Amino acid sequence: MKTTMALCLYVLLITLSTVRAWAGPADPASAFAVEFESGAVWQGRNDVQIPNTEDGTRFSLDSFAGRGPWPAVRIYVTWNVRPRHYLRLLAAPLSYKESIEFEEPTDFAGKSFAAGVGTDATYKFNSYRITYGYRLHAGERWLWWVGFTAKVRDAKIQIEQAGNSSKETDLGFVPLLHLRGICKLAGGWSALIDRDALAGGPGRAEDLAIKLDYRLNERWSISGGYRTLEGGADVETVYNFAWLHYAVVSACLRF
Q: pLDDT tens digit string along 135-158?
């Protein structure tokens, strides 16, 4: 599936490179922008083992809780400090609670849970970030920014069954590399690519969005497209890798 995603992105970029440049003049950058994004999220993978030793049982949370969809929202606030520099804040809460039944006895975070008994599973992965972006290229069609992102994750997995409850929480910092691109199309349309990612060591993280944007006027624009969030950690205390897929729409106000 990752190979398919990479191929789709490659085809999109080739297609965009053949579209004629946006006919209108570039608008001056606004000082601030606020973007509200909403949509639906599906989980393609969510494997869990806590602890990541013989004392924990590995299970697929997506198999028991279902693939979704669940509602998802996020909000961006961007400050264009200078023509080539911006700072961006992000709040992206995400959580769901579903009723499940384990197919076999399961050990999770120090507690044992029986098979075939009604169980509540809670999954939370809230993300808060601050990003610095530097405009690397500004052509007639393409604009590119690179930078880095400081991410704080607020995560929790909780299992509850007939008065028996156990949970694993994680509040931590993750440094990410940032890439953003805009391809100006015709008639006020643009294609957007936005990525925060880092891989290496016992874990990885990636947040990639590909969207089409339409400029309604000098202040307002709307957009829609696909977002994927993938990553996790493989350490002694926890094994959790999730792959989430979003269908999103956005409204952006510049002032």
A: 999 999 999 999 999 999 999 999
